[in-house]
Amino acid sequence: MARQGFNGPAPKRAEERRRRNKDVDLKVTPKTYGNIAAREDNFDPSWHPAAQLLYRSFSDSPVSLYFEPSDWATLRIVIESASASLLRYEDRVSLDMVGSVIKGLEEFLATEATRRRLRIETEPQEGARWHEPEEYWHPLATAWYESLQRSGQAAFYQASDIAFAFFMAEVITRYLGAGLKMSGRLLDVILKGCTLLLATEASRRIAQMELTKIESRNIDAEITALMEEYAAAI
Question: Dihedral, CA atoms, 151, 155, 156, 161, nearest 10 degrees?
Answer without folding.
Answer: 60
